[in-house]
Each structure stands twice: as C-alpha cells, then as structure tokens.
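Subject: Protein record for review, amino acid sequence with backbone structure tokens
Why sent: The fold of this protein is of interest and is recorded here as tokens.
Enclosed: The protein record, placed directly beneath this head.
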Amino acid sequence: MNNNQFRRFFGAALTIIGTVVVLFACVAFLSDGKPVLGMSISKGESAAPFIVGMIFFLSGVSLVRES
C-alpha cells in the first residue's frame, strides 16, 4: 500500500467517523434530555461531539482531496 492509497483510505475512514459523530450529536441535540445510546446528553453537551465530528470530517475530506 503506497502513501497515496493510505492517505485516501485514512481520509475516507476519518470522513465516515466524522459523519457518524455529527449525526449522533444532532440526534442528541433533538432528544430533549432523553437517553441516546444509553447516554443522557443535554443540548449544551451535544456541542462537543458536533465539534469533534466536524474536525474529523473536515480533516478526512482534506486528506482525500490532497491525495
């Protein structure tokens, strides 16, 4: 596996993980205090997974675009 293929694979993995985390943050934001996947997350606390997911998503897209 050469460097270009590894960067594309890693970028695709980061993009998928980022998408899943952002979707989780959106569901947690809309849940109105009900447990989501066994975790009780308030509206304010759902900002942290959203930010982390966006970082993963944008870095994955950047890796795929540059390779």
